[in-house]
Amino acid sequence: MTAISKPSFPAATILGYPRIGPNRELKKALEAYWSRPAENPAQSVLDTLAQLHERTVRHLSDLGLTDAAAIPADTFAVDQTLDTALALGAVPARFRADGFRPAAPDTAQGIELITALSRGTDRLEPLEMTKWFDTNYHYYVPEIGPDTPLSAHPESLIERFVTTRDTTGAITRPVLVGPVTLLLLARPETTDAPGTQPFDRLNDVVDLYIQLLTALKDAGVPWVELDEHALAAEGWDVPRDTIIDALTKAYTRLSFPSNRPDILVAVGYGDAGEAAQLGLAATDIEALAIDLDRGNEPGEAALEAWGERPLVGGVVGGRTVWRTDLGRASETLDRLKATARGPVSVGTATPLLHVPHDVERETALDPDIKEWVAFADQKVAEVVTLSRGLSDGWSTVAAELGKDALIRSRRAAHPATNRKEVRARTAAVQQRDRERASADERRAAQAQRLNLPPLPTTTIGSFPQTPGIRTTRADFRAGRIDQAEYTQKIRAEIAQTVRTQEELGLDVLVHGEPERNDMVQYFAEGLDGFVTTQHGWVQSYGSRCTRPSILFGDVSRPAPITVDWTRYAASLTDRPVKGMLTGPVTILAWSFVRDDAPAREVADQVALALRDEITDLEAAGTAVIQVDEPALRELLPLTLADRPDYLDWSVGSFRLATGGAETATQIHTHLCYSEFETVLDAIDGLDADVTTLEASRSGSGIVDGLAAGNFPRDVGPGVWDIHSPRVPTFDEVAQRVRHAAKVIGADRVWVNPDCGLKTRGWPETEAALDRLVAAAVTVRAELTHDDAASAPSVAAASADTTARAAEGSLL
Ligand code: MET
Ligand SMILES: [Zn+2]
After folding, report:
1. Does the entry feature the keyword Nuclease, yes or no (predicted)?
2. Is residue 542 within 6 Å of ligand 1 at its C-beta?
3. For a Cys staple, 695 with which of 153, 264, 633, 717, CB 3.0–4.6 Å?
C-alpha cells in the first residue's frame, strides 16, 4: 500500500434498493415491451427506468440519505450481473453471430440485447439463470470464455449519473458487480473448450473496469461501489487462495490510476474473511462495506491493515423483513468505532432488493404484527437513525431505541409466537417419526398397489394457469362469486385437466393446481402462523416478482388444505392421482421467516402440519403424494462449515413431514432451479421413493451424475424444458429417456417434464406431453425388443422404426 487517503464517505448508506418499483412499474414496462414491442418500444422501458430511478433518488433523500454518494445508482433493467456484463461488452459468440452487438445497458440497443440474452430468441438459447448466493433472487449467468471479446460501455452509467444530478441535485454512486465476483459467477461460453474458466480473464476484465472508472471520473462521479459478494461464499471452482491472490492483484491495479472515482468495495451475504479483508487492505481502495448482520466483526489484524480509511458497518440486514434490533446494532457499531482506526459509517448488510418497498402500505396487516416488520423504507430509516446515534450520541435517538425495545418485548410476549401445544408437539418428536419402512419393502408394496409400466409417465403438478383460472380466483377473493360457484369452476378445471391427461395416456395424474396462486402462499394461507401481504412484492428474476408470506408465529394446521380437490380429481379416473404438497424447506425458503425461533424448530412445526395433511390424503385413498422441495439447494449455506447443520434440519424436516406415510404410499419429491451435484447425498437422505429433477438443460450432466453417484432411488430427470414455449422434438425426448434408462436402469426411471406447467399454454403442453408419452412408450418397446434379442444396451436401439412410426403419428 502506498498512500493512505482519507476521503470522506457518507455516514449513512444502503448497498441497494428494490428496483422493480412500488407498483411493479418496471415489471409492467418490461412485459409490455416483450409482448407488444410495436406499441411499447425499448424506449418505454428506458423511460420507466429513468422515472423509477428519479423517484428512488428523491425518496431516499427524503428518508435521510442526503450526503453525496449515499444513494446507490442501482437501477438495472433486469439484473445487476447482466448489466455489468454488458458494461464490459460480454456478448456470447452465438449472439454476435446472429447480429447482436455490444451495447451499454440502458440504451435502446442495450434493452434489446438484455431481452435477447435473458429470454433467448427463436434461434438462440438464453443465458442460464441461477440463484444469487443463498437467496431467492436469480441472476443471469454471464458467459465469458477465452475468446469472448470485451469492450467498455460506460455510457449509460454516466448518463444516469448526470441526469440524476441535473434533475434532482443528488450525487449518486454507480454500482457494478466487482470483477472477481463477476467472473466467479460467470461460466464459459457453451462452445468453449472444457477446463477454461472465466476467472482466467481477470486481467482483461480489470483493464475494462479501469476504462469504466476513468470515464466515470471524467463525468464527475466521486464514488463507485463494486460488489464483491462472492468473497462471502465458498465452494467456487477456483481455490480460495487463488481468489484472494487475484483479488489483491485486481484491486491493486484498479486502485492504482489517479484518474478514477473513490472505490467502495462491498461484501454482503456473509463474512469476507480476514484473508480477503487483508488482501483488500493491501490495495489503495478507499472504503469497505462489511456485513455485520451475518458476518463477523473484523479482527484486529484487518482493522490495523485497513488503517484510517472509512468502514461501512452493515448492521441492518437486507434479507429479512424484521425490524433491526437497534440496541444490539448500536452496541456492534460502538465496538467497531472503538476498534477501527478510521471513520465508521452505517449501512445495510446486502442490497435491499430482497425485501418489499414499504410496510406502511400494508393496511390489512394485523397491527400487532405490522409493527414488528421493516421493509426497505423502514430499513433505510433504521440506517439513518443508527448513523445519527453513532455520530451525535445515542441519547439523540433514545426515543427510537426505546420504541424498538418496547416492540421487541411485545413481540416476545405475543401469544402467537409461543403456543404451548405446538411447542410440545415438536418437543415430543422422536427419531423414529422421521423413518419409514425400508426402501425395498416400500418399493415392493407400492409396485403391487400401483402396478405401473416401466418408465412411468407423470407431470410435476401444475397445468396451464389460464386467464380464466386467474379470473376465477380473483373473483372469489373479491367476493364477486361465492364459494359454491368457485368450487364448481375449479372442479371444472380439474375435470378438464384429468380428462386431458387420460387422453394423453399419462400414467400418474395430477389435479393441476388451478386453485393455487403460488405453491407456498397457498399453504401459508391454510396454516396458522403466517400472514400474507398486499404489496409485498420482491423481484425473483427478470420481470418476475413473488410476494412471500410472512411466517411470524408458531405454525399449525387448522384444517385439511388439499384433500377435497385431490379427492375430487381421483373420483374422475381409475388412474392414480398424485397428491401435491409443498415441503417444509421450500415453505421456509420462499417465505419471510421469523427470526425469533431456530429454523430447525420452525421447519419441524411446518413438517408436522404437512404430516397431518399426508395422513388425511391417505385416508382419502391417495396412493402417491409428491412433496416439492425445489428450494432445498437454495438455502444451502454459503460456507462449508455451516452446511452439515442445515442439511440435518432441512432433510430432517422433510422426513418428519413424510415419515408417517404408509409403506404402500409412494412419496415423490421434486427439485428444480439449481445444480444438485453438491446435495445429492441430501436428496438421497430425503428418503423419497421417487425424485423428479429439472435436468433437460444440463445435457446429460445430471443423469450421468446420478448414475455415477449410484443414486439409489427412482428418479425422473426432466425431459422437457418447460421454461419456454418451445415443444421438444420426439427425438430429443426419446433420446433423453433412452439415455436415462441406459445409465440409471429402466426399472428406476420416470418420464416427466422439468417442472410444473403453470406458466405454459395448453397447445404446447398437449403437444409436448404427447411426445413425452410417445417417447416413453417407444423406449419401453425397445426394452422389450432388446430383452428378446438380448441386445447389450438400450442406447444401441436408436431411432428405429418404432420411434419413427410413433413420431409420424404425432406430426
Ligand atoms: C418450482 S417447483 C413447482 C412444483 C409444483 N408442483 C408445480 O408443478 O408447479
Ligand atoms: Zn419445479
Report:
1. no
2. no
3. 717
Annotated catalytic residue, options 53, 357, 670, 723 = 723
Q: Report residue 315 as a C-alpha cell.
A: 448492521
Q: What is the pLDDT of residues 129-175, one digit of tens each?
A: 888 998 989 999 999 999 999 999 999 999 999 999 999 999 999 99
**In terms of DSSP H, where are the helices of 38-145?**
42-62, 80-87, 93-97, 108-119
Q: CA 412, 417, 418, 424 torsion: positive or negative?
A: negative
Q: Is the pLDDT of residue 704 over 80?
A: yes
> Which atom of ligand 1 is the closest one to the Cα of 756?
8
pLDDT per position as a tens digit, 393-422: 999 999 999 999 999 999 999 999 999 999
ipTM of the complex: 0.99
Please return the burial class of 575, using the count of CB atoms within 10 Å of its CB with bins 0-12, 13-18 and 19+. Answer: middle
Q: What's the length of the chain?
A: 811
CATH topology of domain 25-413: TIM Barrel (3.20.20)
794 lines ligand 1 (CB under 6 A): no
pLDDT tens profile 232-275:
999 899 999 999 999 999 999 999 999 999 999 999 999 999 99
pLDDT higher than 80, residue 460: yes
| The pLDDT value given to residue 725 | 81
For residue 310, report the distance from its CA to the centre of ligand 1, in Å: 46
723 part of the active site: yes
Sheet holding 592-593, edge to edge: 528-531, 550-556, 592-593
Cβ of 667 below 6 Å from ligand 1: no
- Calpha distance 48→28 (Å, rounded): 9
| Angle separating helix axes 25-35 and 108-119, nearest 10 degrees | 80
At residue 357's C-alpha, the angle toward residues 27 and 265, to 5°, is 90
Using H for helix, E for strand and C for coil, what is the string for 143-180? ECCCCCCCCCCCHHHHHHHHHHHHHHCCCEEEEEECHH
Q: Domain 425-523+563-590+598-808 - what CATH class?
A: alpha beta
Cα of 753 vs centre of ligand 2, distance in Å, is 9
Q: What is the per-residue pLDDT across 13-68, written as a single tens digit (0 to 9) for each?
A: 999 999 999 999 999 999 999 999 999 999 999 999 999 999 999 999 999 999 99
Give the predicted TM-score (pTM) of the model. 0.91
Region at 342 (left for phi over 0; alpha for psi -120 to 50; beta for the rest):
beta
Tell me: pLDDT of 796 over 70: no
Alpha helices in 508-598, H assignment, sequence order: 521-526, 563-571, 584-589
| Stretch 459-466: mean pLDDT | 97
Q: What separation in Å is there between the alpha carbon of 460 and the centre of ligand 1?
A: 6
CA distance 198 to 187: 6
Residue 351 has a CB neighbour count (10 Å cut-off) of: 28
Reduced to 3 DSSP states, what percent helix, strand and coil does the chain have, rounded to the nearest 5?
50, 10, 40
CB of 605 sitting under 6 A from ligand 1? no
Q: Classify 272 as helix, strand or coil.
A: coil
Q: Is 755 in the pocket of ligand 1 (CB under 6 A)?
A: yes
Give yes or no on whether 25-413 and 425-523+563-590+598-808 have one common fold.
yes
How distant, in Å, are the alpha carbons of 447, 578, 705, 733 from that of 623?
Answer: 11, 7, 30, 28
Specify the ligand 1 atom closest to the Cα of 580.
6
Name the grid cell of 610.
404437512
Cell 416401466 belongs to residue: 454
What is 47-59 written as a DSSP string? HHHHHHHHHHHHH
Distance (Å, rounded) from C-alpha 193 to C-alpha 685? Answer: 35
Is the distance from the beta carbon of residue 670 to the nearest atom of ligand 1 less than 6 Å? yes
What residue spans define the domains of the chain? 25-413, 425-523+563-590+598-808
With a cut of 60, say whether residue 505 has pLDDT above it: yes
